[in-house]
Specification:
The chain is α+β, with helices and mostly antiparallel strands. The protein contains 5 helices and 10 strands; from the N terminus they run ααββββαβββαββαβ. The strands form 3 sheets. The protein has a 5-stranded mixed sheet, with helices on one face. The radius of gyration is 36 Å and the shape is elongated.
Length: about 220
């Protein structure tokens, strides 16, 4: 008798229990959760595209005159012929009426404005135009580079770009121990440069090469 009652009770509960399970299985919240899980799995390998680098290098990159550059000075006053000269190692050029003037280290527009001031009172029309005719720089990359040697670049070119042109730092070289040697006012000076931040893609202030620079990559200590 007890067995019959239990079976009758189970028969009464099973239909309701089955409906409850079906309701939970078909509830909107369960369907939405499953959809979100599927979308997460489908996009698991997706990567958010990186924004473009601001102010990419190009024609608008500021260039400062350096020894070895060839500049042209055009005069509005016809009494003075136009001058095309190569900036000497001491950073100077010799111009009519005003003599030796330091050009290296200045932007062409700044040097042009300086010449306008210097020619004031020397010429009836003191307007001049300074243009960079050739900005080639020959740089020697030595030490632990994959392809050491002498390379000629069209400036502006950074130290990092020059090393990449030499095949990059070798397995035995240290990107954090770069020696940049340059002749400044007749003296040889060396600056230490750490390129690890550039290699990692971190924002850095670039160091630009000049004609005659020597870049030495030291051996890694590890």
């Amino acid at each position: 008798m007890t067995h019959e009652r239990r079976r009758t009770w189970d028969d009464r509960q099973l239909p309701g229990t089955d409906r409850a399970h079906r309701k939970r299985a078909l509830s909107p919240s369960s369907g939405l959760f499953a959809l979100l899980v599927f979308a997460a799995l489908a996009c698991g390998g997706c990567q958010t595209p990186q924004p473009p680098l601001p102010n990419p290098p190009g024609p608008k990159t500021a260039v400062r005159l350096a020894p070895g550059d060839t500049i042209k000075v055009s005069y509005s006053d016809e009494s003075v012929p136009d001058q095309t000269q190569k900036i000497r190692r001491d950073g100077k050029v010799s111009l009519p009426l005003i003599g030796q003037v330091t050009a290296a280290g200045k932007r062409p527009i700044d040097f042009q404005n300086e010449l306008v001031s210097l020619y004031e009172g020397q010429l009836e029309n003191n307007e001049v135009l300074v243009t960079l005719e050739s900005g080639l720089a020959t740089v020697t990359v030595s030490g632990f580079a994959n392809k050491p040697g002498a390379f000629t670049f069209d400036r502006p070119t950074t130290v990092y770009q020059a090393i990449m042109e030499a095949g990059g730092v070798s397995d035995y070289g240290s990107p954090s121990n770069i020696h940049l040697t340059r002749i400044i006012n007749g003296e040889q000076r060396t600056e230490m440069i750490n390129l690890r931040a550039s290699i990692r893609g971190e924002p850095t202030k670039p160091k630009y090469v000049q004609d005659g620079d020597v870049i030495y990559i030291a051996r890694s200590l590890f």
